[in-house]
Amino acid sequence: MKHRNLGLFDSYPLSAYIAVSNPFHMPNKLSRFWQELKRRKVIHVIVVYASSSFVIIELVNNVYETLNLPEWTPAFTLIVLSIGFPLAIIFSWIFDLTPQGFKKTKPYESAGADENINRETVPRITYNNSIAVLPFEDMSPNKDQEYFCEGIAEEIINSLTQVKRLKVIARTSAFAFKGKQMDIREIGNTLDVANVLEGSIRKDGDKIRITAQLIRVEDGYHLLSETYNRELKDIFSIQEEISLAIVEKLKMNILGEAMGGILKRYTESTVAFMYYLKGLNYYQMMTPEANQKAQEYYRKAIKEDPGYVLVYAILGSNYIHACMSGFISPDEAIKYASEYTKKALEIDKTVPVANGTLAAIKSLYDWELEASEEFYIKSVKLNPNTAWDRWFYSLYLRFIGRYDEAIAESLYALEKDPFNIYIRSYIGIYYLMAGNTDECITWQKSVIDLYPGGFMAFQHLGEAFEVKGMLEEAIESYQKAVTLSGGSPLAETKLACILHKTGKTDEARKKFEKVENMKEAVTFYIPSAPLILYYLLTKDLDRAFYWLKKACDEHDFNLPFMMRTPLAEYRMPDDPRFNTLLKETGLNKFMP
């Protein structure tokens, strides 16, 4: 049976949600106190108060005699200012000036068992250099080591992301040139990087031969050209040597924290490592069958090394993505995602992917929006130089209506992963939510140019046309989304709604009934949330509430995305039943 895409994500080879973490650098108490003073603007108040006091004292000293003021005036002024100084500090510590007036400053909230995070912003990085690591060519006798070649290249990518001043292109975009006969300089210019690493691997039994060339894009000069003839058991040392050699050749000064990230090993078992690489290979295919195969290899890796924390974290993430892609139900996804993520965090609380998965669980399933924030931010702070964590954080910013920040985070992620269709497409969604429909249309068309077979871009393009009132164009886009997705319930429902809007009510009803009947008849999971839209549009609030209740019972991942929409006809009505249910579930916090 042809796979029917039922989820939020397109069926497209998805760059695995992996970020090799560096050891979390815990600031000491003095540093933490200093950061808190700055956050509460105490330092700013001290500087302003001291500067203003100096001006006032000088002014009083110069004019009190001219104005025939008492001789004790300067001393009195100094005493008043001295008394006011600690009061100003105390006031600035307790209160903050906002557009709504003075409000009590919120304290830091826990980011884990004993860690605090800065909520003001996530780290921004200015790059001194840039690199793309291409998939290594398989030179093995049987040409059966493609997964190994790609896996080693990705591990080098993950190691290099620890160097904060180095822009590292993510796997999705770097591997887009696989099998294409293109000049290295052309690839570098396309990806907007100064350097490209390419190489090959020959694996024959336990013997491996790895060649690596670091090429400067500007003139094609080989900064590095090395050959490593070793045994398979030395693979971890080879990866570290290549990464450190790149850093040295690019003259990147790295601190101990980044060095620790490059040298950090999650396993010493080559058998477990090979299973892990095979899992990654299947995960990229993003089909239900390949996804199950990836999970099997991940479990084999854990069986070989029960302390392989990175695999626990990736398994947890895998189940979240499987649900978002429509492969499994939310209940099944969360059961395993929670189990593996909890295990990962028990072993190492600083693995970014585990914190990101926990954030997704809290926002997409538990609908605990505020609780998810600290984990979204922490995942980015632990590894700010990766595209995927940045994009995932942008989802949270979308949920709370901070669209400009969501766009900024996504653009930042796109810089490191320019061919990632999810990041590019969601930038368009954020523009639409922010009221810039034309910019959304531009972005969705750019996604279609990159990947004409992706249904999500056509669906989002239809939404933009619908907002703009271009209904015939919306129908065409939705029809393409339905065809390319193999009948996504959301795309089918969107098409039914737009047909209803154009007066084709009978055709609309027939299409929607097909979706509704399929939901009631099939044994595999189909989300209920899309069905709400049609009944909201037709103002059948009884049926709309029925499907909302079912979607809430399922903890449908689509619901958080539906709480904000630029089209009034799809918004939740001001109805006591809806209001009570949304409040009870916590979904009301996702609404404007």
Just give the CATH class of the domain at 129-265: Alpha Beta
**Overall pLDDT confidence:** 85
Low-confidence stretches: 11-32, 108-119
Q: Beta fraction of the residues? A: 5-15%
CATH superfamily membership of the domain at 129-265: TolB, N-terminal domain
The name of the CATH architecture of the domain at 129-265 is 3-Layer(aba) Sandwich
Q: What's the Cα radius of gyration?
A: 28 Å
Provide a descriptive summary of the structure in words.
The protein has 592 residues and is an alpha/beta fold. It contains 26 helices and eight strands. It has helices spanning 29-39, 42-63, 73-94, 146-160, 171-174, 184-191, 235-249, 256-263, 270-283, 288-304, 309-324, 330-347, 352-365, 369-382, 387-399, 403-416, 421-433, 437-450, 455-468, 471-485, 489-501, 505-521, 529-537, 541-554, 559-562, 576-585; strands at 95-98, 101-104, 129-133, 137-138, 166-168, 195-204, 207-216, 222-231. The strands form two sheets. Strands 3, 4, 5, 6, 7 and 8 form a six-stranded mixed beta sheet that branches. A two-stranded antiparallel ribbon has the order 1-2. The longest helix has 22 residues, at 42-63. It is globular.
